[in-house]
Structure of Peptidoglycan-binding protein:
Amino acid sequence: MSSAIHRLSIAAAAAVLLAGCVTTGTEKTAVTGAASGSASTDASSSLERCTETLGTLAIDDGRAADWYGQFGSATHVTSIEPLLRLAVQQSNCFVITSVGNLRTNSRLSKITQQQRNSGEYRAGSKQHKGQRVAADYYLEPQIIIDNDAVGGLGASLGGMLGGTLGRVAGNVQSKSSVVTLSLYDIRSAVQISASEGSSTATNFGAALGAFGGSAAGSLGGFSRTPEGKATVAAFIDAYNGMVVSLRNYKAQNVKGGLGRGGRLKVN
């Protein structure tokens, strides 16, 4: 009994030491708190912000993307879009519309049609056409590299520590995620901005197997797909970079105008 408790204590200590081992760019970042209009509460101190709102935004929910299914199955992250929406609103850079989220937009449209056409709602409910706000820009997230093993941290630690703790460390893996965000002007379909974000995570979930099923079950909360959380953090890293770039935005100019043949003439 005492041996089992000892092993569980070591597992807990290892989990605490390794929990939160997620890095993005040069510093750790996360999405926290809440947003309401231009106000935010408990937002991450590392989140970049805009003093002036730049326009309205549609954020792709990713559900139609090639990477969505495999990413969700591997990490148990059901959606990255809500966290992106929270960070974008907290940053005050854009006003977010429902466009881009296929489910939300469909449901809002259904509710609007029901209230407008059923005849069951009070006069003055203002359910007439022409009230929706159009999106000026479209934000597309993409996962380039997900859950890629980088380095042999676990094996090195395992050799140094030895014994039971060494078996835990021996199963530790460092994972890497690389993502991009692309921002398009909807009316012209011109790409306005693009950015890359990256993160690494220490995956210690497999290490709990060294202590048997009971220990792993007791510490299940510590083993929930840190690589998935790291990928979400990578998107925030990419968004921070984009905001810095947008604060210094200057439109590109082509002599003669855009879409009129360009300047790279062919003889």
